[in-house]
Amino acid sequence: MKYVYREFKVIWKRFFDNFKIAFVGMDVKLDSVYREVESQRIKTNFVNIIPFSVFVIIFELSSGIFNIAAGDIWYCRVGTGVACLSFLLFNIAAYIFLERTLASGDATDKSKEYFTYLYWGVYVITASLINGFETISSGSISSFFLTVFSLTSFAMLEPKLIFIYYFVIAAEQTAVTIITKSSFDVLVFSLFTVAVGLFLSIFKYCTYMNRSIETKRFERISEIDPLTGLLNRRGMQRSVDGIWSYCKKHSIPITFAMLDIDYFKKYNDKYGHSQGDECIKMIAECIKQTFSRRTDITCRFGGEEFIIIVAGETEEKALEQLKSLKREIENLKIKSGCPEFNENITVSMGIHSVDIDSTTMFRDAVLGVDAQLYNAKGHGRNCISRKNEIIR
Prior knowledge:
six-stranded mixed beta sheet; 13 helices
């Protein structure tokens, strides 16, 4: 039995991975843009539950008061009453949880995703029960249509979840139709409604993912320096925005390093701009190989200047990496444009660490590391400046 379950799980996962590749157009395991868009979709889904839960709370309270005042006996029956009351209390609890979670900012994407699954799963099951009690009591299927409409309009879930939720709705409606001995036409119309809702939900998911991915890819292109493949200033700012608040909240230090190619203008004048571009590309490749962690930010700041931002490491560790980078660049043995200074290309570096607090600004950190770089250049170049101390 375990073997059958494991094989079914593998086939199920493979089917929906292939579905995404076919309709969203990518290998979901490898595409970083997809992961970023998926993260945004999870956050949007999570936040969208708040207005929907408020709507449900108001709707359930007003419906209960109206039906009791009107003397509709079916609404007061035990099954429907318990289901509606449970659903009301669940939405109140969900609303309180969401507000507190968003205020604290502690929830991870995984926890948001699981809560979204839980919420819509409870919604589908409870709404199906309410619909079943309502149909058996009064023959009305208005709750069924409201369930399909809500799921289609407010939720933007992965196709595998959409299939499961709509299957539950279809199974409930089929069972109720059989129990109440309703006409076959009612069942066909209900299943047709489920099929339309399923199609619209999947269409909405695919449309959102495709458009968001296309937009994000254009943004990424505009944030990459075409010559080196490193981030440009715009890309650096976006990346820093992503880690700055996290490091501030958890008191994680950030180390900035700025690098400048010594006498690069003379190199361009002697060998030409085409050869100068090759020199920049080779040095950029050394930077990428030395600072290769996912959290490391490497940027071509302009011309022959580069910025490296390292979060979560001590200044001493970052300094050791800079020394290693300096040796790697010297080992390239690129002929210098200023042989009276040095036979091969060299670099000057500045390093500056900041402990982020409420008054620390990114601009101040850049100015700090820029001052260290110019201190290095003012002390003969081909060195590293740290707290105005020269390291060769």
